[in-house]
Task: inverse folding
């Protein structure tokens, strides 16, 4: 039996978590890998396939990405389990790379993979990650963006079962921009954990996405975004849709350190409940130590707007279709932040497929 | 119960300095907290056996509990064994005249516009009228008239000790029903050692003829650290209760752990207003009261309503979440709060709205104002149970920062298990803009008056929920609390 130390629900940051299954998953053996090709969007850049956290070199064209031993320090209880070899992307000043696609295939049991992304001044990268299969996929990704670097990350979690735990830790330098968008549209549980740190002046950070849950699923996002320098800007736009007996939880925090004046932080957390047995939990949190800042958050939970439903059906649209249209629009808010059109379309199509099944 | 240690003996044998001493006042509970202390308190109050058992049960629970640390507060360790849990109410030193009063306090009284006679009562001037404080509300009323009026209406308004003796069945039925003994560390402590407090029962169909206030209750003075309030509004009843005082209160007791329980049955309404201005400590955070209060209302009946309004300006540390359990159909919970922190004050305050009944509604309006090097946190929970259909909640929490050394935090929790619920939460953080200040000052206001004006505008939605007399004082209080925070 694996001795795994997991945080308890009595701890404030884990009160909505359901990690019980992880111990059992950690003890299960791996299975047979799936075909990966179906899961690439086809952006024409480097491709990597990880099967149970190990690079499948035959099916990968890594480009600038290196797989090597990584020693990443973290206090995060799940993130620190991700040790050993991982992938690393390092771009020097002014370098850019074609969009990198990574497919993580889990075949059962547990797999852990650390990652390190370092972008030099004015460097730019786009990374799309897709999770498929079954089992516990545990990731720790550390990101450092130098002055004016730009990173666009999109992560879709499509595993049919199991658990995905994602821990991101980022340092965003002066004028740099980090956008991370997550979509949970599979059959697994997940926890998306983020600690983004805007260390340079006029840094921009964004973390958001959509969590779609049904059955007995439990998905949650717990993100804290800290502004340490002047003129920072951040957005956290999250949408959650819960059906059956599932639970979706969104906890987003903005911290503004003393002296981080002129910060503009925005949070929008919205939940949509499709059944009376489902649960949505929201916690939009602000922690502010500077007086000249603009920080606002909005949070709502409810069902679809009956007036809008009535309007659509009065125009001859079938009720089920009307419901699907409105739900799609609700989710689209969070996915519209994805910069590359092909990626945005692929994510939207995944969300649509989930909605078609669910509604 | 005999005194048990040297310190207690010394204290007991000390001659009462102001020449007023009775047998009763020489008795102290032994220092520290034990079962014997609890038994002593119960015996001193002549309580029935069931009450003692209730206290002891709470004490045994408390022994196994640990103090909460999840709030965003920096609370120095409290030595619970280094305190007296029972002493007869301390008498304030008597002053010959108002001239002997600390000029700082006198100046505050004047700014608040407190009448001279009332100032004498607050300051403890010799010969001041005992029940003068009612002058604020009604210069004609005296104790006898309001008691008579209440009796005619059938309203029971007593200290909780008296109520335990006179209406044991009623107290026993409701005590601990809203805030159970095991609720939290401080509530459990209070359940074991509560010294006194208020009991109000408004019978079916009665609209309480006046605003009730601890001001009015003669023996309400110095109810001590562990106050317990229980208000029950029977079917169709209405009562408005005012707690606290806008005048600065200095108190030797550092820890205040009060419990307030409200019960509203069918169609009943309770309005509970608080103005809290306990001693916040000096500019460097030395001294000051720790105000750890558990306040909760049970809207048990159909169409019941509870409205909490609070203006919190005092205390070094505030830990307080007046809450509503909305279990009745169509029940309504409201929470209006202004919390001001200055210098080194810390406040972690907010509300919980637990929706269990169909069509229950709640409104939360919280205004936090931080100045100096203080920290002000709004922490709230809105929970909707699976069977609570058509719940509506609206939450607005706004923070205003005065200065760059303070902090304003918002920690709202939303937990919804019914799709018919409509929950909205908005929050903003801002500062007083230079334009606003310039405009107000160009009209002839000095900087402090300008800030007070703007802050009052910011808090207007809450202040207008207060009974009028309180509202006027509270407005002045906001200005005074923020003195020295700008300019």
Result:
């Amino acid at each position: 039996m694996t001795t795994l130390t997991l945080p308890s629900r009595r701890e404030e940051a884990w009160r909505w978590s359901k990690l019980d299954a992880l111990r059992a998953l950690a003890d299960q053996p791996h299975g047979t890998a799936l075909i990966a090709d179906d899961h690439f969007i086809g952006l024409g850049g480097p491709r990597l396939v990880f099967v149970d956290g190990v690079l499948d070199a035959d099916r990968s064209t890594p480009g600038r990405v290196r797989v090597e031993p990584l020693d990443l320090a973290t206090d995060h209880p799940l993130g620190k389990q991700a040790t050993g070899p991982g992938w690393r992307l390092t771009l020097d000043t002014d370098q850019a790379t074609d969009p990198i696609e990574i497919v993580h295939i889990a075949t059962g049991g547990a797999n852990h993979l650390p990652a390190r992304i370092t972008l030099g001044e004015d460097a730019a990268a786009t990374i799309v990650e897709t999770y498929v299969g079954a089992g516990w996929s545990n990731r720790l990704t550390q990101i450092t963006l130098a002055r004016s670097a730009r990173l666009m990350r999109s992560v879709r979690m499509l595993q049919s079962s199991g658990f995905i735990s994602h821990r991101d830790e980022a340092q965003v330098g002066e004028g740099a921009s980090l956008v991370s968008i997550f979509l949970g549209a599979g059959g697994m549980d997940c926890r998306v954990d983020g600690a983004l740190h805007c260390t340079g002046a006029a840094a921009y950070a964004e973390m958001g996405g959509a969590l779609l849950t049904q059955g007995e699923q439990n998905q949650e996002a717990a993100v804290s975004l800290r502004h340490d320098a002047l003129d920072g800007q951040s957005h956290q736009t999250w949408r959650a849709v819960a059906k059956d007996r599932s639970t979706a939880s969104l906890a987003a925090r903005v911290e503004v350190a003393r002296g981080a004046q002129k910060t503009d932080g925005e949070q929008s957390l919205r939940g949509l409940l499709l059944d009376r047995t489902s649960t949505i939990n929201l916690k939009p949190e602000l922690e502010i130590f500077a007086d000249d800042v603009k920080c606002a958050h909005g949070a709502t939970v409810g069902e679809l707007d009956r007036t809008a439903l009535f309007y659509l059906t009065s125009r001859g649209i079938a009720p089920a279709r009307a419901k699907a249209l409105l739900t799609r629009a609700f989710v689209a808010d969070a996915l519209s932040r994805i910069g590359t059109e092909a990626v945005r379309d692929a994510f939207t199509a995944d969300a649509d497929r989930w909605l078609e099944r669910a509604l | 119960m005999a005194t048990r240690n040297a310190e207690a003996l010394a204290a007991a044998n000390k001659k009462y300095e102001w020449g007023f001493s009775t047998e009763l006042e020489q008795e102290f509970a032994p220092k520290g907290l034990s079962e014997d202390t609890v038994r002593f308190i119960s015996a001193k109050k002549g309580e029935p056996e069931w009450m003692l058992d209730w206290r002891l049960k709470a004490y045994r629970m408390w022994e196994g509990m640990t103090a909460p640390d999840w709030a965003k507060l920096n609370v120095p360790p409290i030595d619970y064994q280094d305190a007296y849990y029972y002493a007869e109410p301390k008498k304030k030193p008597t002053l010959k005249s108002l001239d002997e009063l600390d000029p700082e306090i006198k100046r505050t009284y004047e700014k608040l516009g407190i009448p001279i006679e009332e100032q004498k009562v607050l300051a403890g001037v010799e010969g001041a009228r005992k029940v003068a404080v009612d002058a604020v509300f009604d210069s004609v009323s005296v104790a006898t008239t309001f008691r008579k009026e209440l009796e005619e209406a059938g309203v029971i308004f007593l200290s909780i000790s008296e109520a335990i003796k006179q209406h044991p069945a009623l107290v026993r039925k409701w005590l601990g029903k809203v805030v159970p003994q095991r609720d939290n560390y401080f509530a459990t402590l209070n359940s074991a050692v509560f010294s006194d407090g208020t009991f109000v029962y408004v019978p079916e169909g009665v609209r309480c003829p006046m605003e009730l206030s601890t001001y009015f209750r003669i023996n309400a003075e110095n109810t001590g650290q562990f106050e317990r309030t229980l208000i029950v509004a029977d079917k169709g009843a209405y009562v408005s209760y005012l707690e606290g005082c806008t005048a600065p209160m200095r108190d030797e007791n550092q820890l205040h752990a009060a419990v307030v329980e409200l019960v509203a049955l069918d169609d009943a309404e309770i309005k509970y207003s608080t103005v809290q201005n306990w001693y916040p400590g000096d500019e460097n955070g030395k001294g000051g009261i720790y105000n750890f209060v558990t306040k909760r209302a049970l809207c048990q009946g159909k169409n019941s309503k509870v409205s909490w309004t609070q203006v919190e300006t005092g205390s070094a540390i505030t830990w307080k979440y007046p809450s509503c359990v909305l279990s009745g159909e169509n029940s309504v919970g409201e929470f209006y709060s202004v919390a001001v922190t200055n210098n080194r004050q810390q406040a972690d305050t907010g509300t919980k709205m637990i929706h269990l009944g169909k069509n229950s509604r709640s409104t939360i309006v919280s205004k936090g104002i931080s100045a100096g090097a203080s920290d002000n946190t709004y922490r709230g929970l809105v929970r909707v149970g699976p069977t609570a259909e058509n719940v509506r909640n609206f939450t607005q929490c706004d923070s205003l920062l005065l200065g760059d050394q303070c902090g304003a935090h918002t920690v709202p929790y939303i937990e919804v298990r019914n799709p018919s619920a409509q929950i909205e939460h908005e929050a903003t953080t801002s500062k007083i803009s230079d334009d606003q200040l310039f405009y107000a000052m160009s009209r002839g206001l000095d900087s402090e008056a300008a800030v007070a004006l703007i802050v009052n505008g910011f808090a207007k939605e809450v202040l207008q929920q207060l009974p009028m007399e309180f509202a006027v004082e509270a407005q002045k209080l906001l200005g005074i609390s923020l003195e020295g925070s700008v300019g």
